[in-house]
Amino acid sequence: MAGMAAEVSGDAAVNVVAHFQSELLSMMRDADGLRFKGRFEKLEPEVKQSHDLPDIARLTIGRYWRSLDKQQQGRFIDTFTRLVVATYAHQFDSYNGETFKRKSVRSLKRGRFFVRTELVKSNGKSVHLDYVLHFRKGRWSIINIIADGVSDLALKRVEYSHVLARDGFNVLVSMLERKIAQYQ
Fold this sequence. Notes:
Layout: H1 2-9, H2 11-29, H3 31-50, H4 53-61, H5 70-91, E1 99-107, E2 113-120, E3 126-136, E4 139-147, E5 150-151, H6 152-167, H7 169-183
Antiparallel strand pairs: 1-2, 2-3, 3-4, 4-5
């Protein structure tokens, strides 16, 4: 019954976000000694645990997902996962006293939760980071992050769908591989 209460209240969803942000801060504190490869290795299990990467990957290419065979879908999920981890490892590459603050939580349609947080920088400026989570396979997972009002999922969907329509699957995967290499 306690698990059901956490599911309904969103406490477990909040805990996913709080744990992920705590791990980001931990990695940031060690960022200089870790270099990119170390940051990537430290974050990879955390990102895989906190994010529903297969679902996010599917959503980023929308209607094109069904046109891919199982091998292509698997390749896309793997490449997309590496890109997400590489992006975090690249963007969170130092620590200067940043903190995360939870601002609010609200339920959304279809049993999802919206967790509003703020990354407060050492200069006092902040970035609003809002997380959308859903409950699948017995756990809460992040399916979208909205930074200062801009949905990461929406941006990727527009970009990736355009590349798929114009250039095809192999070009899209090559584009993602190039981004990963640039972050290294």
